[in-house]
Structures are given as structure tokens and as C-alpha cells.
Amino acid sequence: MRAVHTGASATGILPVVDLSRSGKMRPIIFLVLSISSVCAVSLNTHWEEEDTKWISGILENVLKKKVDSLGSLHYATSALKLLKVTPASDAAHLACEAAKKADLSELDNLYDALAISADLPNCALPSVAGAQKLIDGVIKEITPNGERIYRALRSADHGKKKKFQVDQGAFDKILLEAMKEDSPLNLGWVFNAAALLNKDLVSKYFDKIKNLVSQADEVDKKFLQFEGGLTTTAIAVHGIMSLAEKQGKVPALSQEQTLLFSNYLLSRKHVSTERAAFHLLKALGVLVNNHQLVPITVSLVGPVMFDRMQPIKIAVTNVFGLPIEATDVHVDITPLGSERALASNVKMNRLSS
């Protein structure tokens, strides 16, 4: 697909162009990108290495100091895995031991322990007897909410190697009932849960995405968020994009809305709790690993003032600052304060890595 951006962009290089008679100027660059099978939208910023260092330090501290909180250990280990950061061996050992000793007669503990076991190497749980009964028990509950249904389905997903079974029809039925409570947080959990069902059951949930998006609040024409702040917004975005990926369709979310949601999430990247970090990173992760809508950061490589004898270098990255494969990039170059382009539809040359 093709997407139009304002700013500098794309991993590549613009051939030398005579930008002005004076030799230097501050131009505005308009870009048209072709990116295979993905509709790209442009962000204000992206995740930096310093952000990883900041959050990983907080998460490592959680593993050492919150050994009595299985939920905290789950959020910390899972967030570190999303960051591709290996925790210190002693901290990982403490978290693993906590998971192995957890009382798995409660669904929340089962959900957390299975996640820790899946995210840490060599951390198999000694026994999950009764887990299948816990998962099936959610089906029989009178009013299970979206989060509880998600935890049951996610536990079953984590337990695939243990051959946990899921009654798809029964979970679909209770999930439809739970969807009647249409708050942003509950719908976010419902969509996350639905994405774990078989594809043939997902379309009716996918069609409700527009109902959730309509509840979002725009802030200063810069951000889009849900009432409840970061956690609710992150859970909702993850649910929307997970459903879209399961269906293989672009969700009822415009490019601008995707941009505003992404910019909001990135504006909150200096979180201080493991729960917020976990949900934030999951949401950012699904914005990278999908085939429908991928937000990108547009940035100039080199000085702001251009020399007409030097090529202009620009880069396109995803929310984590990693390169995006742009198959075709053209630019229009216009002097700041002018409406007339000095160069139009100039094809960029890709730089070898």
C-alpha cells in the first residue's frame, strides 16, 4: 500500500539535488512510501535504547523485591522478554521458584505461573493438576468478565504442551455474553480473548471494533486514549490489532487514529510499574508484528541544514526504532515558507546495510 507522510523518512538516500542557489536551506520533504502489504503511518517518536535501560532496571528490581507477588513477577518477566532482555540468573531463579511453589488452585495464580514458566528458560512447573478443571470452570461462571475469560484462554494457550483443551463453542458463548458490558476495558479484554479462539468464530467480534474505537477521547489533536489511561488504552489497542491479525483484515481504525493511539502509548513510555510496562510493551509489540497497520517513525539522518553538494539521508523505523522494509520511496522537496516544490517525485536510492 502507499501512504503519504510529512517529514523525513525511509531507509535510503536521496541523490544530490540542487536545493538552492545559496547552497544551503531548510526544506520540507514530502514523502510517498510503498511498503509491502502494510499500511504505514508516521509517528512523532520511537522507542530508544535508553527507554529499554530505564524500564529493564525497574523490572529487574521487581524480580528481586516482589517475590511474594506472583502477578508482579509475571508482568516483570514477560515485559523483559518483550524487551529481549535476559534477567540476571539469580532474579530469574527467584521468579521461577515462586511460580513452581504457587497455589495453582486459583485461576489468577495459574495464569501468572504459566506465563512465568513460558517466559523463563528451564522453568517447567512440576505439576498443573487441576488446571483443566479451572479453565473449564470459567464457562460455568454466572457473570465472567472479559479479563477472566482471557486469563482462562491464555492459560490454555500457555499450556498447549500439556495438552489443555478448550471448548471453543462454550467459550464463544460466554464471551458474547461478556461483550454486552461495553466499557473500553472490558471490550479490550473481550477482543484479546476472542483473538485466541478459532478464526471462524472471530468475525462477529471483529465487527465490533468500531464500537470500541468510538469511545476513545482525542487529546490536543495529538493523542487518542480511552478513559482509564495507559493500561486500558494498551489493552484495547492490543485487542484490536490481535483481532485484525487473526482475521487478516485492516480493523475499523483509520491511519490517523492508529497514529494518535501510537503516539499516546509512546508518550507514556517512562512508566514506573511492572504492570503498566507489560501492557505498554504488549501494545507496542503488536503494532510492530502485524500485517495490517504498522506505525513508523520518520527521521532525518544528518544535519537539519542541507548542503546541495551532499546527498540527503533519511530513515524509516518502527515504534522500536528498527528499520522498516520500504520497497519504493519518492520525495517532493519544498523550501520552508514556500508552496512551490524545487524537486518533485524524486526516487530515493536504498542504502546497503
Please specify the SSE layout and strand pairing:
Layout: E1 2-6, E2 12-14, E3 24-25, E4 27-34, E5 39-43, H1 49-65, H2 70-82, H3 89-101, H4 107-119, H5 131-140, H6 146-158, H7 168-178, H8 184-194, H9 203-206, H10 209-213, E6 217-219, E7 223-225, H11 230-247, H12 255-267, H13 274-288, E8 293-301, E9 306-307, E10 312-317, E11 328-335, E12 343-347
Give an overview in words.
The chain has 353 residues and is α+β, with helices and mostly antiparallel strands. The chain has two domains: 7-18 and 32-43 and 295-352, no CATH class; 49-294, Glycosyltransferase. Helices cover 44% and strands 17% of the residues. The strands form four sheets. The chain has a four-stranded antiparallel β-sheet with strand order 1-4-11-12, with no helix packed on it. A hairpin with a 7-residue loop joins strand 11 (328-335) and strand 12 (343-347). Helix 5 (131-140) runs antiparallel to helix 6. The model is unreliable at 1-41 (pLDDT under 50). It is found in: Endoplasmic reticulum membrane.
